[in-house]
Amino acid sequence: MLALCAGALSRIEVYAYRRAGLLLDSDLEWLLSIAPGGSNATPGLNAETLCNLIERAFVIDNVAHFEALYAAAERWPALRARYTIWFDGVRLDSPGAAQAREQQEQLRALENSIPPPIVPDPASQVLARLAEAEAGRWQAWWQLTYYLMLTPKSRALAYDLDYFITAMPGWAEADDELRRRITVSAERYLTDAETSTDAWLGHNPCPFK
Hints:
Blueprint: H1 2-6, H2 11-19, H3 27-34, H4 47-57, H5 63-75, H6 77-82, H7 84-88, H8 95-112, H9 122-134, H10 139-148, H11 169-173, H12 176-192, H13 197-200
Helix pairs in contact: 2-4, 3-4, 3-5, 9-10
């Protein structure tokens, strides 16, 4: 991410990182810390790119975000200039207001082109499939692994050959008790699951091609 901050990225290009889940709300604190005047100010960064990244990580209705942004803007004139409309106000018929409206329309067009999340609440689906697996339906365990791959913002299924459960978003969000239940259920799945491997392994053509 630090190397990204040193290059030149437009607002639209930065939005693509946000859309892909590579730029998160939680990145705002770090971005402000490496900006001029921050606690870990880093030389050699592209000011425009850094402002664009901050803008996309910032959540307008998050009070903590606004307070951190305001404090950082007081230390970094370039950031304050980016948000001058918010901090100082602007005439509605001014060039600055016109530019802000144009940029907002561009981002709104991008937002409208995004398909809805495929599963708005994957955590509840994990719990539901886990309960089924614990009740004896062994097929539910591999189904829950699909939900472990997702976040509430996921708009496509993850790669279905990614078997590293502990690297999945759902695992990261799970508490210790839920992780224990998932692990116990996985052990039961390995014992109880029926497989058709003998029906296709070594045969040509393979039915999964």
